[in-house]
Amino acid sequence: MKKRTNKQYAQILWDSTLGAKGKDLEEILKNFVLLLVKEQKFKQTDKIIVEFEKYAKKQSGIVEIEVTTASEIGNKTLSEIKKVFGDKVEAENKIDKSILGGVIVKTEDKILDGSLKTQLKKMKTQLA
C-alpha cells in the first residue's frame, strides 16, 4: 500500500469532518487519531494540522501570500498588494535586506520577483 502524505491526511480529515458536529465530530476525530496510530503517523500530527489549516483556507477561498521587502512597508502598501490577489487574502510580510529594494511575492504556486537584486542580475547577464 502506498504511503499517504501529510497533505493527504489533512484532506481526509477535511472531507471527513465537513459539516460534522457534536458526537459525530468526536467519533470522526477519534477514528482519525486511531488511523494515525495504526499507520504510524501520530508523530506527524503537528505537520498534518498545518496542512489541514492550509487546505481549509484554500477550500474557503482564502489566498495566502508572502511579501518580502528590503525594509518595513506600511499597511496601506500591503493592502494594495493584497488587492491584486483577491478579496480574501492573508499576507505575511518578511524583511530581507539582501534584495536591496522592490518586492517579492510568493503564492502557493508562483513567485513574482520584482526585487532590485534580481533586476541587477538580469541587467548584468544582458551586458555580459
Which helices and strands appear, and what pairs or packs with what?
Elements: H1 6-17, H2 22-38, H3 45-59, E1 63-69, H4 75-84, E2 89-95, E3 102-106, E4 111-115, H5 116-127
Parallel strand pairs: 1-2
Antiparallel strand pairs: 1-3, 3-4
Helix pairs in contact: 1-3
Can you characterise this structure?
The chain is an alpha+beta fold. The chain folds into 2 domains: 6-59; 63-127, no CATH class. Helix content is 52%, strand content 19%. It is built from 5 helices and 4 strands, in the order H-H-H-E-H-E-E-E-H. The chain has a 4-stranded mixed β-sheet with strand order 2-1-3-4. Helix 4 links the parallel strand 1 and strand 2 (89-95). Helix 1 crosses helix 3.
The arrangement of helices and strands along the chain is HHHEHEEEH
Mind summarizing the main beta sheet?
A: 4 strands, mixed
Distance between termini?
Answer: 53 Å
What are the segments in which pLDDT stays under 50 over at least 5 consecutive residues?
A: none
The number of distinct structural domains comes to 2
Helix content: 40-55%
- Rg, please? 20 Å
- Mean pLDDT, to the nearest integer, reads 94
Shape: elongated
Question: Strand-residue fraction?
Answer: 15-25%
Strand line-up in the sheet with most strands? 2-1-3-4
Task: Compute the number of strand runs.
Answer: 4
What's the tally of helices? 5
Structural class: alpha+beta
